């Protein structure tokens, strides 16, 4: 809730040819240029002394101040959503990592701003946000894009409440996106296909892909990896910063700060490390600068996948992360979803499960094991058994 304020000004008398009662109190007005409140003193005339007694003037003062003190000092009746979005971009957006910030900027500019910019903050309700999401579904936006839109709208109104621009329920909280659906099938690769793919890449790109597919790192974490974060003695990588298309940053969340085991890749990193490389030098770089994910994807990753017949719609850097998270949860050495979540640097197990390519082979093995333990005869044999006679 926005902050309330209590004022109880003294009743004053102005002397002159015709004395009168008055009070002075403070009001907060919006500066349209800065979007900030400014405190102004207001002088309120209560009546001439020859017409209004002192007691009557006090009652009038109390009536006025009850309204003033009951006011929520917010911009509900004054600020437009479009004006608040400008403040949101100035104050909150710089706190985001580069990747999320670019996504926010795009969705605010192309969807949220045009839909709500001319509305007042206080006028936007749950029904309006639901209608907005429904129209985006009709326009063909995916479930995931609409989920991002809902999250950003919710974040905008959360900040509006925290900063004192609005009170009441967040209008995005009780909206619905409908059943989750995906436009693209999630494709996986067999072990032999992964081996063939990596072997066809240039040496440096081989190490990039091998690192991603066996550690589950994000491409921004890989690009931001410095030699100071590679401990060849402990055979680990410490993920603690990112680099995304020209911008350095922190990891996506606190959970993304993590140590990852290199295994046999430790020897590859040792051989790959240039003589004289310092702790601040980037592991994967071009002319001293970290790699650009778009360039590597365009020049090496996609062409190789197409040449080997492994390309599919949606193929990209995230493919390797998905393969890692899936493999962690399958086979005899499988880990549980919480261990996979820690490896991936996720904050929620649901996110990890969305990355997982579910297969039927593991379930088939489990069902076969159950049947061996619980059904010593085949199902056909059970069906051929003579039913037991009913007990009289």
What labels would you give this structure?
single chain, 392 residues, alpha+beta, three-stranded antiparallel sheet, elongated, disordered C terminus
Can you describe this structure?
The chain is α+β, with helices and mostly antiparallel strands and 392 residues long. The chain has 15 helices and 10 strands. β6 and β7 (247-249) form a beta hairpin. α4 (126-138) runs antiparallel to α5 (143-162) and α12 (337-344) packs across α13. The protein is elongated and about 100 Å long.
Short description:
This protein is an alpha+beta fold and 392 residues long. Helices cover 45% and strands 12% of the residues.
Order of helices and strands: EEEHHHHHHHHEEEEEHEEHHHHHH
Chain-averaged pLDDT: 82
Task: Write down the overall geometry.
Answer: elongated
Strand arrangement within the widest β-sheet reads 1-2-3
Low-confidence segments, given as residue ranges, are: 378-392
- What structural class do you assign from the helix and strand content? alpha+beta
Strand content: 5-15%
Largest sheet: 3 strands, antiparallel
What is the total tally of β strands? 10
Helix fraction bin: 40-55%
The end-to-end distance, rounded to whole angstroms, is 74 Å
By DSSP (H or I, 4+ residues per run), the number of helices equals 15
Radius of gyration: 32 Å
Please write out the topology.
Elements: E1 12-14, E2 20-31, E3 36-48, H1 54-70, H2 81-91, H3 98-116, H4 126-138, H5 143-162, H6 191-199, H7 203-215, H8 219-223, E4 230-231, E5 236-239, E6 242-244, E7 247-249, E8 258-261, H9 265-272, E9 285-286, E10 289-290, H10 293-307, H11 317-328, H12 337-344, H13 349-355, H14 361-374, H15 379-384
Antiparallel strand pairs: 1-2, 2-3, 4-5, 5-8, 6-7, 9-10
Helix pairs in contact: 2-3, 3-5, 4-5, 7-9, 7-11, 12-13
